[in-house]
């Protein structure tokens, strides 16, 4: 009887430990940086970043669960790429949008559903940034705005680690689009302030 009790206690302890959730990240993702790209030098005394978009922090919005929030990566882009090298003016970068919405997808019903692996969720991301040149008197001298969207769907059997990889790649794709668009527009619209 003592042996049975010991075995029961050991099995119970093992089952309890197996049921514990870990708070450690499943994946370690590199920080998305843009300092390896040539700086965009502007006639300004400083670069100010305003995160106007505030995450709801609850579903269906899921950007707060991403390895790197899209809005935070956009803010990092501004500090990495935009360089103030002047004696007047200010550059203001406003993160207007940085949301990702999880949309449940229809799944196969009935007997066929037992043998089908469906796409279970879709993630719709939107990232929007405005860059302004603000004169010494506070007036807007020029501005550019860029918006990008990305969507990804995942299958119902995806692991949490693979879901995080999907989210990381989605953020990276949105930022690559935004970087190219903003750089092109700044080169065209900010010519008098480029240094």
Q: Any overview of this molecule?
A:
The protein is an alpha/beta fold. It has a single domain (38-193), classed as Double Stranded RNA Binding Domain. Helix content is 33%, strand content 30%. The chain is built from four helices and six strands, in the order αββαββαββα. The strands form two sheets. The protein has a four-stranded mixed beta sheet, with helices on one face. A hairpin with a 5-residue loop joins strand 5 (119-134) and strand 6 (140-155). Helix 2 runs parallel beside helix 4 (160-189). Residues 6-24 have low confidence and may be disordered.
CATH class assignment: Alpha Beta
Report the sheet-strand fraction: 25-35%
Order of helical and strand elements: HEEHEEHEEH
Average pLDDT: 89
Q: Which shape, going by the Cα principal axes? A: elongated
CATH architecture: 2-Layer Sandwich
**Which spans of ≥5 residues are poorly predicted at pLDDT below 50?**
6-24
Indicate the structural class: alpha/beta
- Alpha carbon gap, first and last residue: 84 Å
Task: Count the beta strands.
Answer: 6
Tell me the number of helical segments per DSSP (H or I, 4 or more residues long): 4
**Under CATH, the topology is which?**
Double Stranded RNA Binding Domain
The count of domains is: 1
Provide the gyration radius in Å.
Answer: 24 Å
Main β-sheet description:
4 strands, mixed
> Helix amount, in percent?
25-40%
Strands of the biggest beta sheet: in what spatial order? 2-4-5-6
